[in-house]
Write a sequence for this structure.
C-alpha cells in the first residue's frame, strides 16, 4: 500500500480530501532563489543536452548547432507558458462550475501544496519541439539522416520534458503566489 507509511495522508485520501498525487513537501519551502536557479539550470542544461545530441548526429553543421542548442530551452519556456494558460482556463472553468454545481468536498488545494493543473503540457511541448528540431537538423546537415536523428532527439526531448514536469510538480518550476 503506497500510503501505509503516512497514516494522516492515507486518512485524507480515504476521506476524499486529496488524490494522493501531491508531493510531500510544501511549496512554501521553494524559495524564489531556488526556483530561479532551477529554471536557469534547466535552460542551460537544455542547451547543453541539445548541443551534445547535435554532436552525435551532425557535428559538421553550425546551423544544426544553433537549432539543437535553442530547441529545448524554447520548448521549456513555451511549455511553461502553455501550462499556465491551461491552468488559468481550468481555473475559470472550475469557478464557473462551482457556481452551478456545489461541491461537498474540501476545496481544491486546501491543506496541500498548490501546483496548477496541466503541468504535463511541458512534456508534450518538449517532445514536439524535439521532433521539429530533429527534422530541421536532418534537413540542414549533410551527415544526419532523419530516423536516427529523430530517435535521438525525441528520446532526449522526452527525458528533458519528464524532468521538467517532475520539477514543476515538486514546486521548483511552478509560479509564485504573487504572480
Amino acid at each position: 500500500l503506497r500510503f501505509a507509511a503516512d497514516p494522516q495522508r492515507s486518512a485524507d485520501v480515504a476521506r476524499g480530501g486529496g488524490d494522493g498525487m501531491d508531493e510531500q513537501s510544501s511549496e512554501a519551502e521553494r524559495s524564489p532563489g531556488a526556483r530561479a536557479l532551477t529554471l536557469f539550470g534547466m535552460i542551460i542544461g537544455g542547451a547543453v543536452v541539445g548541443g551534445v545530441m547535435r554532436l552525435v548526429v551532425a557535428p559538421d553543421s553550425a546551423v544544426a548547432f544553433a537549432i539543437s542548442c535553442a530547441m529545448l530551452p524554447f520548448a521549456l519556456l513555451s511549455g511553461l507558458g502553455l501550462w499556465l494558460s491551461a491552468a488559468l482556463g481550468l481555473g475559470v472553468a472550475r469557478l464557473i462550475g462551482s457556481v452551478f454545481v456545489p461541491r461537498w468536498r474540501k476545496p481544491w488545494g486546501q491543506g496541500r501544496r498548490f501546483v496548477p493543473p496541466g503541468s504535463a503540457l511541458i512534456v508534450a511541448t518538449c517532445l514536439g519541439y524535439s521532433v521539429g528540431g530533429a527534422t530541421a537538423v536532418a534537413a540542414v546537415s549533410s551527415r544526419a539522416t532523419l530516423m536516427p536523428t529523430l530517435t535521438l532527439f525525441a528520446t532526449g526531448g522526452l527525458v528533458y520534458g519528464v524532468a521538467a514536469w517532475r520539477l514543476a510538480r515538486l514546486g521548483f518550476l511552478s509560479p509564485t503566489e504573487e504572480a
Remarks:
- Confidence is low (pLDDT under 50) at residues 1-28.
- Residues 131 and 154 are 6 Å apart (CA to CA).
- The longest helix spans residues 62-100.
- The chain is about 65% helix and 0% strand.
